[in-house]
Design a protein that fits this description.
The chain is mainly α. It has a domain of 137 residues: Tetracycline Repressor, domain 2 (Orthogonal Bundle), CATH 1.10.357.10. The chain contains 10 helices and 2 strands. Strand 1 and strand 2 form a beta hairpin. Helix 1 crosses helix 4, helix 5 packs parallel to helix 8 and helix 5 runs antiparallel to helix 9. The longest helix has 24 residues. The termini are far apart.
Length: 220
């Protein structure tokens, strides 16, 4: 049995309950930050939305900065869970790539407030050497590079540095995510995913043009 601050017996801490409360705080914080912006979001409003005391929030997150960064981290955790769930049980490597692309685009198309949060982080915390999005990308990219490497070894894709492939694919998705947010979803996710995959998998040159350029020694 634990003790309260006044020395009287209290209920033991429930890790599950604490984790659930933390997720509730972060979920609501995302909505408020996205709606009002970092500077104009008051933790008192967050407390009122959750029907808890302001002090409760600070027991989980000692400052508004830490709350915001934890909210951004949650966005990326949810995105990774979404992508991982979409490819679970899929053995064909190229299908895994295609399904992951669709899952990524769908996730942010359905949650534009998440894009807003990532954008605010770039604007508000310029002192951070690496934004949350890229922290997660760095952790996650190794397994995709391993997949590209296996496809190269199998002779299914060109023998180019896997870092180059992962950088280009990541930049295509990152750019599409922000373009959709800034100008609105002009095409369906399926159309955007199909276009990205078509260009990534097949390129834009015809077989005849590739042969012509190879024969002439033309540089890319």
């Amino acid at each position: 049995m634990t003790q309260t601050v006044n020395g009287k017996p209290g209920r033991p801490a429930d890790p599950g309950r604490r984790a659930k409360r933390q997720e509730q705080i972060l979920e609501t914080a995302v909505q408020l930050f996205a709606e009002h912006g970092y500077s104009n979001t008051d933790t008192q409003l967050l407390a009122e939305k959750l029907h808890i005391g302001k002090g409760t929030i600070y027991r989980y997150f000692p400052s508004k900065r830490e709350l915001f960064l934890a909210a951004a981290d949650r966005v990326m955790r949810l995105m990774r869970q979404c992508v991982d769930g979409s490819i679970e049980g899929i053995e064909e490597p190229l299908d895994r790539i295609a399904i992951a692309v669709r899952a990524f685009l769908t996730f942010f198309a359905e949650h534009p407030e998440y894009v807003e949060l990532l954008m605010q982080e770039r604007a508000q915390f310029k002192d951070r050497k690496k934004p949350t999005y890229f922290e997660h990308r760095e952790v996650n990219v190794q397994r995709w590079q391993a997949l590209y490497r296996s496809l190269i070894e199998a002779g299914r894709i060109r023998n180019v540095p896997v870092e180059r492939i992962s950088d280009v694919m990541s930049n295509l998705l990152y750019g599409t995510m922000f373009t959709n947010y800034f100008i609105g979803q002009q095409q369906t996710v399926e159309t955007q995913a199909r276009d990205i995959l078509d260009i990534a998998f097949h390129g834009i040159l015809s077989d005849a043009e590739r042969r012509r350029r190879a024969g002439s020694g033309a540089k890319l």
